[in-house]
Amino acid sequence: MGRLGARYPSSGGIVEHLSQAFGSGIFTGSMGIILYLSAVVVLSLIAKAFGNYAITFLPLDINQLFWKHIFSMGIIILFVFINLKGAQDVAIWEKITVGIKFIVLAGLSITGIITLNPELLSPSDYPPTNNIFFSLSITFLAYEGFRVITNISYQLSTIN
Fold it and tell me: Residue 18 in contact with residue 34, Cβ under 8 Å?
């Protein structure tokens, strides 16, 4: 994605790459619409997951369904306001977010290495197949953000 972004610098991202490859037409337009619809679905999944995780920090005696929706909507509203402020603020928040994620992942990695139990790596102890596919889908969602790399590279090049 980075090479395509460098070759065709545009805020159009993947849609621009489709246009460069297939020209402007029904196929490119259809794929662009599907891309944006998939982005809405992915964002709603991520917001819903955030709401589910956030309520785990609340007491059990409150209306968790209500607060789950509040947290889900709140995270979307927060990032809309961050994006409305401009690309420079987004870059600052992205650095902060990546730093926090790095610290969490490093901590989890170190803890995993320290508490490693090699016997659990035996194929007889593998989880059920549906759990493996569930983890693969979560991994796919985790990498969903890579499609916007080309948009960011163009926006940052216009700031400098």
Answer: no
